[in-house]
Specification:
alpha/beta, TIM Barrel, 8-stranded parallel β-barrel, globular
Amino acid sequence: MDFGRVITAMVTPFDEQLQVNWDQVEPLINYLIEEQQSDSLVICGTTGEAPTLNDEEKLKLIELSVRYARGRCKIIAGTGSNDTAHTIHFSQKVETLGVDALLIVAPYYNRPSQEGLYQHFKAVAESVKVGIMLYNVPGRTGVNLDAETTIRLSHISNIVATKDCANTDQLTRILNDAAPGFLVYSGDDSNALPAISVGCHGIISVASHVIGKEMQSMVKYYLEGNIQQAAELHRKLHPVFIGIFRVPSPAPIKHALALKGIQTGGVRLPLVRVSEQEGQFIQSLFV
C-alpha cells in the first residue's frame, strides 16, 4: 500500500468551548487535500490531540474523515495506546469505518522491553485485517522501537509501514533489512529531505498544514534528480520546520492555520494557546 510522499497529521478543529467543531472537519480536509496536496491524512494522532479526545469523539471524527475524503486521499487512523487490550478493542471498531490503515504508537509511560513491544504490535496486527503503520516517537513515549524490532515486525503481513522519528542511522538500518515493500516514513519535518535521501518513502508532517505544496515540490525535485533545487527549498522551509515546534504542538500550527484564515480553534489542557509573543514569532516565519 502506497500512502504517498507527504502525509499530514491533521489537527482536530475545536470551537470556542474546546468541543470538536464538527462543521469545520470537512472544510479542513478539503483544504489539506486541494490546497496543500496531502496524499494521506492521519486522524487522531498526536497532532490531532488524541490524548484528550474520548473514544466517541475519535470514532465520529474518523468516520467523518473517511466520508469527507471521498477517496481523494488515504485515511490513516490513530488507534494506539499503552494498553494492548484497549488498542485491540478500539482498532477493531475503527476498522469497520473504512479507513485505509491504522497508526499504532509505541506504548508510552509503561516502557516495555523490545520483546514487549514486538508482542504488543503483533497482537494488534493479528486482531485486524487492515494495514498497520508503526509509530516510533521516543521523545513522547519514553521508549525507542529499535531498528531490529521494526525489521522483525515488518515481516508480519499487515504491518506495512512505519512512522519513525529517530535519526537517519536508525532509518537506514530499517531500510536495509525490512521486508520487501515495507514503507519507512520520517516523522520529523526537519528530517524530511535527509530521510528521503537515504531511501525513506516520505514524511508524515505537521508543517504540511501550511507548506504542503512546497514540501511536495521539494520531494519531487529530489526524486527527479534536481538535488540542488531540493536542497535550496529544504533550506528555505527549514525555519518553518523548526519554528512550528518552538512551543508544544499543535498550538503553533493551529495559530499558523488561523493566519491563513483556517479556523481550528485552541488546544485542550494541559496544552495552551501560543502567547502573543509566540504568535508574532510564528507570523514572522511566513513574512
